[in-house]
C-alpha cells in the first residue's frame, strides 16, 4: 500500500472526480438508447405504424425488456462484487448499444426482404431488445460499486444523488432526441444514433475507469476521508470482515427485513416511474393528437424536475427527519399520488376530461403536475433502491444489494407493461388508476417502517 500521504491525496483528488464524471457520462448515454422506444415505436411515423405491427407489441416489448433487465440486474450485482469494473462496465455499455439498435436493424432487414413476415420482425425485435436490456442492467450495480469504494459514508448520499441525476437528464435528452429524430428524420435514426453514442463513450470508460482504490495501492476511502486511521486497516480487504461472502449475504440480505420492505416499495416506485415515462408520450400522441416533440415535452419536464427530487430527498431525510429514510420517502409518494389524481381529472381520456379547463391554463396545469410528479417519483427512485437499501447491509455486498433491490423493483416495470396490454381495451385512464393505487401502497409501506433509521455505520465492510 502507498504510504506517502501527499501522493495518496494527489491520486484521490484526480481519480475521484474523473471516475465520477466518466461514469456519469456513460450512464447518461446508456439512457439515450434505453428510453427511445416510447417515442420511436409509437405515433403515425413510428416503427409500429411504418412496419404495420400489432397494437399490443409495444406493451410486449416493454414486458420483455423489463423482465430481462430484472434478471440481469440480479446477476449484475453479484457479478459486480466479483469483477473488475474497469473492463466489465464499458464492455456492458458497448454490447448493449449494439443490441439496442435491433429495432432499427429489423426495419432495414425488412426493407431488404430478409425479414418478411410480421412474426419474423417481431421475433427479431423481441430478441435483440431483450438482450440489450439484460446487458444494460449490469451497468448500475457496477456504478454502485464504484461509488461505494471511491466515496466515503460522509458524503456518499449527496454524491449518489448527484450521480442519479444522470438517469433523469439522460431520460429527458432521450425523449428530446427521439422526438427530434422522429419528426425530422426517420424512426430508424431514433435507435441508431444512441447506439453509436453508447459505443463511443464505452471506449472512453475503458481508458479512464479504475476498479477500486486497493487495486492502485491506495488505502480505502474511509481511511483517506479520516473516518478510520491507517492503523485500523490492513491492505487485504478480506481482513476487514472475518465473515465469508455467503455469511454476509445471508445475514445482510436474506434476513434483512428492512431491505425487503424497501424492495416492495421499489416495485411501487417503478410502476410510477416506468408507467408515466412509457405511456404518457403515447397518450399525448394518440389522445391529445400532439406531434412527437410536443408529446415528449410533459415527460421531459417530469424528468428534468426529477433532478430536484433526486437532490432534495437526501437533504429532507438527513436534515428534517434526522437520518430516517421512510418519512422522507412517504412525503414524496404523497406528492406524486395527489398529482396523478388531479391529472386523472383534467386529462381528456377518451376525448373528454372530468373537469374541463380552458387553454392555456389546462396545459400549464398539466406541465405543473408533471413537474411535481417528477420530484415525487425520482426522489424515492434514488433513495429506496440506492442509499437507503445499501445502508442496511455490509459494503462487501453493496452491489448485490443494489442488484437485488433493483431487480425486484423491475417487477413494477413488468406490471406496468402488463397492464399496458389492456389499455387498448380499457383505455388509458385504467393505467392512471394503477399508478394512483401504486402510490397509495407505497405510502402505507413507508408508514410500516416509519420509525426505523435504516442508516447504520456503513463504514463497516
Write the layout of secondary structure elements.
Blueprint: H1 5-34, H2 37-40, H3 47-50, H4 57-82, H5 85-100, H6 102-111, H7 118-136, H8 139-150, H9 156-184, H10 187-208, H11 221-224, H12 245-254, H13 257-286, H14 292-320, H15 326-346, H16 361-390, H17 398-421, H18 423-426, H19 428-448
Describe the structure.
With 461 residues, the chain is mostly helical. It has one domain (7-225, 248-448): Growth Hormone, Chain: A (Up-down Bundle), CATH 1.20.1250. 75% of the residues lie in helices and 0% in strands. It contains 19 helices and no strands. Helix 13 (257-286) packs antiparallel against helix 14. The protein is globular and about 65 Å long. It starts with a helix and ends in a 13-residue tail after the last helix.
Question: Briefly, what is this?
Answer:
This protein is mostly helical. Helices cover 75% and strands 0% of the residues.
Key descriptive features of the protein:
single chain; 461 residues; mainly alpha; Growth Hormone, Chain: A; 19 helices; 0% strand
Structural class: mainly alpha
Tally of discrete structural domains: 1
Q: Report the CATH C-level class.
A: Mainly Alpha
Low-confidence stretches: 229-239, 455-461
* Portion in beta strands: under 5%
Q: Please give the number of β-strands.
A: 0
Instruction: Predict the CATH topology.
Output: Growth Hormone, Chain: A
CATH homologous superfamily classification:
MFS general substrate transporter like domains
**Largest sheet at a glance?**
none
Q: Count helical runs.
A: 19
Amino acid at each position: 500500500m502507498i504510504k506517502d500521504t501527499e501522493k495518496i491525496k494527489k491520486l484521490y483528488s484526480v481519480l475521484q472526480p474523473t471516475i465520477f464524471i466518466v461514469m456519469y457520462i456513460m450512464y447518461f448515454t446508456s439512457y439515450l438508447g434505453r428510453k427511445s422506444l416510447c417515442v420511436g415505436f409509437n405515433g403515425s411515423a413510428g416503427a409500429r405504424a411504418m412496419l404495420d405491427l400489432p397494437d399490443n407489441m409495444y406493451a410486449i416489448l416493454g414486458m420483455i425488456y423489463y423482465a430481462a433487465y430484472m434478471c440481469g440486474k440480479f446477476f449484475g450485482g453479484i457479478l459486480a462484487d466479483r469483477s473488475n469494473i474497469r473492463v466489465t462496465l464499458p464492455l456492458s455499455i458497448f454490447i448493449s448499444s449494439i443490441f439496442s439498435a435491433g429495432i432499427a436493424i429489423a426495419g432495414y432487414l425488412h426493407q431488404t426482404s430478409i425479414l418478411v413476415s410480421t412474426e419474423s420482425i417481431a421475433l427479431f425485435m423481441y430478441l435483440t431488445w431483450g438482450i440489450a436490456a439484460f446487458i444494460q442492467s449490469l451497468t448500475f450495480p457496477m456504478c454502485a460499486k464504484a461509488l461505494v469504494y471511491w466515496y466515503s459514508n460522509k458524503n456518499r448520499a449527496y454524491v449518489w444523488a448527484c450521480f442519479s441525476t444522470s438517469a433523469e437528464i439522460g431520460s429527458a435528452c432521450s425523449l428530446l432526441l427521439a422526438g427530434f429524430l422522429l419528426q425530422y428524420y426517420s424512426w430508424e435514426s431514433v435507435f441508431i444514433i444512441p447506439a453509436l453514442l453508447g459505443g463511443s463513450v464505452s471506449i472512453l470508460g475503458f481508458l479512464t475507469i479504475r476498479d477500486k482504490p486497493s487495486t492502485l495501492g491506495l488505502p480505502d476511502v474511509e481511511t483517506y476521508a479520516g473516518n478510520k486511521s491507517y492503523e485500523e486497516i490492513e491492505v487485504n480487504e478480506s481482513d476487514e470482515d472475518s465473515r465469508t461472502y455467503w455469511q454476509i449475504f445471508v445475514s445482510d440480505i436474506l434476513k434483512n427485513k428492512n431491505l425487503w420492505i424497501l424492495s416492495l416499495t421499489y416495485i411501487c416506485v417503478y410502476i410510477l416511474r416506468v408507467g408515466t415515462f412509457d405511456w404518457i408520450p403515447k397518450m399525448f400522441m394518440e389522445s391529445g393528437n400532439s406531434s412527437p416533440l410536443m408529446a415528449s415535452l410533459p415527460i421531459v419536464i417530469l424528468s428534468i424536475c426529477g433532478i430536484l427530487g433526486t437532490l432534495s430527498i437526501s437533504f429532507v431525510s438527513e436534515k428534517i427527519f434526522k437520518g430516517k429514510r421512510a418519512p422522507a420517502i412517504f412525503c414524496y409518494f404523497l406528492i406524486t399520488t395527489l398529482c396523478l389524481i388531479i391529472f386523472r381529472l383534467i386529462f381528456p381520456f377518451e376525448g373528454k376530461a372530468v373537469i374541463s379547463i380552458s387553454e392555456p391554463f389546462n396545459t400549464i396545469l398539466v406541465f405543473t403536475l408533471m413537474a411535481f410528479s417528477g420530484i415525487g417519483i425520482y426522489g424515492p427512485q434514488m433513495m429506496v433502491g440506492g442509499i437507503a437499501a445499501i445502508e442496511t447491509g455490509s459494503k462487501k455486498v453493496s452491489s448485490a444489494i443494489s442488484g437485488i433491490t433493483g431487480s425486484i423493483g423491475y417487477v413494477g416495470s413488468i406490471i406496468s407493461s402488463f397492464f399496458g396490454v389492456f389499455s387498448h381495451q380499457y383505455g388509458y385512464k385504467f393505467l392512471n388508476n394503477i399508478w394512483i393505487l401504486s402510490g397509495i401502497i407505497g405510502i402505507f409501506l413507508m408508514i410500516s417502517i416509519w420509525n426505523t433509521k435504516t442508516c447504520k455505520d456503513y463504514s463497516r465492510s
